[in-house]
Amino acid sequence: MMQTKAEAIQREFNNRGIVLRESVTEAKSHAFQDGITNQFLILNDMSGKRYLIRINGKLWPPFTREGEHHNLEQLKKQGFDTALVANKPEEGFQICDLQDETKNFTRINVKGHRISAIQAVAKTIQKYHQLAHFESHYSFQQTLSSASRRLRASGNIEMTAIYRVVVSIFSLITRDDKEFVASHNDLLPSSIYFNGEKTVIVDWEYSGKNHRSYDLALFSLKSCLSPVEESHLIKNYDPEGDNRMEYWLPLMKAGVNFLLLLWELNSSRDEGVHNALFLFKTLQSNLQDAFIQQSAKLVFTEKRCLFFKPERKEAKKHRLTNNNQENTGLDNDGLVSLASSL
């Protein structure tokens, strides 16, 4: 007889000697159905400990449940706490210890405590970047191209121009393999908890190799870090400057900011418009920071567009071509920023 997902989850608890206050079937009276999005269920054992059950939804390429499983095993091997109890990709579910929401990064409001938390996060990111070895890969450029396809097809001239600028900026980020490390790729402040001296990071389903600046850029943007807070993030991740994070982070933030904006514009959620307006504002600042980081100087202002010209002619070598990259039609002698029009 085919086992329902609820029965498979119950069996996993039984095999671990965990006695639940109510059975999985009682807690969720119907068998779980496969779906596009993840489903979640909270269960309690007899001691009062709580568990979060994730019923797997669909993952889009390049992500796979097998890839997530491998990465979780790597993190466990290196001693990282991901709150994982059991991961069963073949049976379509995952069991985690439910974390205390009062210890979530988003709940930290005191300035001094927030700085300490940012420092702890930076050191944890640096450690898993250094120690873990993921097999799967995450392509930022492919994701950006896919997310922008609908807007580019709509004929929105300004958004298309911004897209070209972002891709041109991102082309300056190194292709050196040593800069692509084991990354979380969805490092939201809500995924970070502090359990005593331990930093716990959950939700690794989008994990894979990525440029080392991506996790820091997304965390900084989603946490709305101030310049002072971001400097603590960089200093504690890259204290000796060996990874050139002061250089990479502004470039990556511009790209990630634009990607977040595209997702909001493609979203049907009620808060999408409000979030998009906020991201338009931050995009202006992050594009400007990216150009400043490239030692770009203002040549002239014409109407609503700013044209920047890098000081070093050799920067031309980064120009995009159709050789495994997308040709944006822009070179680094004529990067166009629409930041002033946002």
Automatic annotation (TrEMBL):
**Annotated InterPro entries:** Kinase-like_dom_sf
Q: Name one GO molecular function term.
A: choline kinase activity
Q: Per its record, how is this protein called by name?
A: Choline kinase
Q: Name one GO cellular component term.
A: cytoplasm
Annotated SUPFAM superfamilies: Protein kinase-like (PK-like)
One example of a Gene Ontology biological process annotation: phosphatidylethanolamine biosynthetic process
